[in-house]
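Hey everyone, long-time lurker, first post.

I ran two proteins through the pipeline my lab uses and got sequence/structure pairs for each. Pasting them in order. The first:
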Amino acid sequence: MELVVRYKRVIGLDIHQAQITACALIEEPDGSARIEQRQFGAFKRDHRELADWVASLCPDEVVMESTGIYWQSPYAALEAAGIRAKGVNARHVKNVPGRKTDVGDAHWLATLARAGLLRGSFVPPAKLRELRLISRQR
């Protein structure tokens, strides 16, 4: 079964504690598709580098698994760069055999996003996230 392409420029992000694996699926004007994969670290400068790379590709969709707390900092860096990413529930995308690597996960996320099959989880606005953090620390 072939997936119908809904978005021409998508990026899937597989996020872990120490590393972010990114896979961009870009459809060229001639109809051919190219895959661009990169890995980024987990520090703030790496998140800014990720945001710059994502912005340079002008994506239609950016998706990331919203597991644990590790997605929050890259999400904030993307948001600061003016990129609206979707945090998706890992249970909705993990039940596929044969994708056991970070690169495979990022590519699968991008493939599903390209077909418009992923629904983003609710992510509160930045001000509300900040207030929640303050109340948790209290």
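...and the second, right after it:
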Amino acid sequence: MEEDQVIAMPRIGDMAPEFKAVTTQGEINFPNDFRGNWVIFFSHPADFTPVCTSEFMTFASMEDKFAKANCKLVGLSVDGLHSHIAWLRTIKEKIEYKGMKNVEVKFPLIEDISMNVAKKYGMIQPQESTTTAVRAVFFIDPKGVIRSIIYYPLSLGRNFDELYRVLIALQTADEFGVATPADWRPGDDVIVPPAGSCGVAKERMENKNEDVKCYDWFFCTKKLDKETLEKKLLKK
């Protein structure tokens, strides 16, 4: 039973588990303090490690981009607050990576020495490590619902283009009532959900005035230009 508690994790569609925590930006009540915003809640294995450093610099450099998409960032590791503060100071003062330097991390980084939060979110994967969190990413919508989850092992740094793509794709699905196909990027055609019956599907396929292209009753696409999408989703 104890091991099950360690590796248990919430699922897509669940409400994000609640917790209170101390962070580098003060105490937070999660996810209630972030209602009305999308949140990318992510874990990293440890402070003062190279892969995590490259990730935090990238997250911090992209924070404004995420903010324009109404998304806040919240990080976590099982290190203490003093370690977090010292590491982030070192990043700002000493580390240069891919043209990024003097990078200040302004989003909250949670202290989780007890591992209580990491265990609650299934961030501790015993076959990978029993003492550090893996690289978990939870996409949480403005209502506090978990919408997507991505896990990476300790050795693999995250793909930040993909993290942003997932966020925009989820928002696009909500805003326009569509789905996004493989390798979708803003500006690409989107998927129109299948009609509820064969009769409706046939009528849609035969409707030449509708802005929908159907290859068969179950596979229909339509254009959604990037400008329209960004006008709806992104803050100026």
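Reply from user beta_strand_b:
Welcome! Quick read of the second one: Helices lie at 2-7, 50-61, 63-68, 81-94, 116-120, 160-176, 198-206, 226-233. The two ends are 50 Å apart (CA to CA).
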